[in-house]
Design goal:
heterodimer, A: 415 residues, alpha/beta, seven-stranded parallel sheet, four-stranded parallel sheet, globular, B: 105 residues
């Protein structure tokens, strides 16, 4: 079915389309995939975790590399473990790290999902642990499928995230505005849209505040902006890369205006932080910038993958990734849809790019037509159609030390 | 060749394809600007004259400051426009955007 959307035929399309089926979770959210997630709790367990998941298409892997634990990273692991697209969890530790696989498995059990955990040191090393882990995955999958309840799914059940990376002069003209228009439609149909990268909205404080739904939200946006501004000055780096300059972007201010375009035009309901669920539907800003602490800030999104993980942590079942110059990443847990406004990129990376927004630049499609086309692609992905990164088994992840919402930072050492 | 102007107040437009020197049409208007040099897709062409220290306007806001006189038809990039915030990027390579301030030795 390939209809051009107009206000008139939009209702017809939805009446004609089959209802999507999702996976009902105990917390009321609905998944669009039913995955077993293997989580390792220190870099030392990484190889075994990946070997357990190897050749199992519905088994994804994430993990935290540090031996010392970190409240932010634990919250992120738990948010991903209880994501709507995840049906069961296996936590794998080496045995001497701080982060506790047993506590992860326990938290997952409380969310009414099957879970298991073990320490490699207690199971005879690499080979024996892989065999043990594969057996646990097989049992988890059976239990997950036995309790899977299929339910109808609509736009109001979806949370969709967006970020951009490898931006060029087309991103602010086509890729991001098409996503922005789609986000407007999603919000109007009762869905939830999340955008991030406040460090790429530097220079736009006043513009952002005018988008706030209430004066309280305006105050939150102002504080979030000021922290991001202080962060950039502290690390002496703005969020702009060599590829951005080569693609025609001259300054961070110029990149910022293009990045903001992906938020569309609806009022911003509030600011959420990493691993925090939006409290109601609508458009939300995600603040992934670390809080200032004893090591100054640390780093915010050191790469695109880290930002995508943050969007998945707030419950996005699908993430849209706008890239002018092209990218070959994917994501675990939630499918990634890769969008470009650069026709050369779409032509040169046909197996990696999902959506071509360049007809908007050529004038052969309006912004509304292109947003409608994107909406139909998102609907197909929500109904189960694999994205290009899913077909290529791209499941990059990046979970790092960060400090956000940690009141007890002064504890630790006696001076 | 065509370029896109986002806001009526803009002093630059964005190239929609790689263009050699020559006439560039501003999409949706009858305005033609003669590019005085080749300008790549996604890059900016000046559509009005700017003096040193004038704001460079795109999306209707100042995206930077002109560091020299810019004539209509010139390529606007790191060599003649600097950020109001970011000090590091003006030393980057004009064509590749690569930084030269960290030594690999």
């Amino acid at each position: 079915m390939d209809l051009i959307f107009t206000p008139g035929n939009r209702a017809t399309f939805f009446m004609n389309s089959k209802p999507w089926q999702g996976y009902q979770r105990a917390d009321g959210r609905k998944g669009i995939r039913n995955l077993v997630l293997v989580i390792y709790t220190v870099e030392c367990a990484q190889h075994v975790a990946h070997a357990i998941a190897a050749h199992e298409p519905d088994v994804h892997v994430i993990g935290f590399p540090g031996c010392y634990d970190n409240a932010y990273a634990v919250r992120l692991l738990l948010a991903l473990a209880q994501h709507p697209n995840v049906g069961a969890v296996l936590a794998v530790g080496l045995g001497c790290e701080y982060t506790r696989p047993a506590a992860i498995a326990e938290a997952v059990k409380r969310s009414h999902r099957p879970s298991e955990w073990f320490y490699i040191q207690e199971h005879g090393g690499t080979r024996a642990s892989i065999v043990h882990g594969k057996a646990l995955v097989s049992s988890l999958r059976q239990r997950m499928e036995a309790q899977a309840e299929r339910v109808p799914l609509g736009w109001s059940d979806l949370t969709i995230g967006c970020e951009c990376g490898g931006s060029d002069g087309t991103s602010g003209l086509a890729g991001n505005p098409v996503v922005g228009r789609f986000f407007d439609r999603l919000v109007d149909q009762g869905g939830t849209a999340v955008f991030e990268e406040i460090v790429e909205m530097i220079g736009l404080r006043e513009v952002l505040l005018t988008r706030a739904a209430t004066p309280t939200v305006a105050e939150m946006l102002g504080k979030t902006y000021d922290k991001a501004d202080a962060y950039c000055k502290s690390v002496q780096q703005y969020s702009v890369s060599p590829g951005n300059f080569a693609g025609g972007l001259t300054t961070i201010e110029e990149k910022s205006m293009g990045a903001l375009a992906k938020s569309g035009s609806r009022p911003i309901q509030g600011v959420i932080r990493v691993s925090e669920k939006p409290s109601h539907a609508g458009l939300w800003m995600l603040d992934s910038v670390p809080d200032e602490h004893f090591m100054q800030f640390g780093y915010t999104n050191p790469n695109d993958t880290e930002g995508i993980m943050d969007l998945i942590s707030v419950g996005a079942q699908i993430v849209l990734f706008v890239t002018g110059r092209g990218s070959v990443i994917g994501s675990p847990v939630a499918p990634l849809i890769k969008i470009t406004g650069n026709e050369r990129t779409f032509a040169s990376m046909p197996e990696d790019m999902d959506f071509d927004a360049s007809p908007v630049l050529k004038g052969t499609r309006t912004l509304d037509e292109s947003a409608g086309e994107l909406e139909r692609l998102v609907a197909r992905v929500a109904a189960g159609e694999p994205t290009k990164p899913e077909l290529l088994c791209h499941r990059e992840y990046f979970i790092m030390y960060k400090h956000q919402n940690v009141p007890s930072l002064k504890q630790g050492c006696r001076f | 060749m065509r370029a896109f102007q986002l806001n009526p107040a803009d002093t630059v437009a964005t190239m929609l394809a790689d263009a050699p020197a020559g006439d560039v049409q501003i999409v949706g208007t009858s305005q033609i600007v003669r590019a005085v040099e080749a300008i790549a897709m996604g890059h900016k062409i000046a559509i009005v004259a700017m003096k040193e220290r004038d704001p460079v306007i795109k999306y209707g806001i100042s995206i930077g400051t002109a560091t020299q006189t810019i004539e209509p038809g010139q390529w606007v990039h790191l060599h003649n426009c600097r950020s109001q915030l970011d000090e590091r990027s003006n030393g980057f390579d004009l064509y590749t955007g690569q930084s030269g301030d960290i030594l690999y030795e």
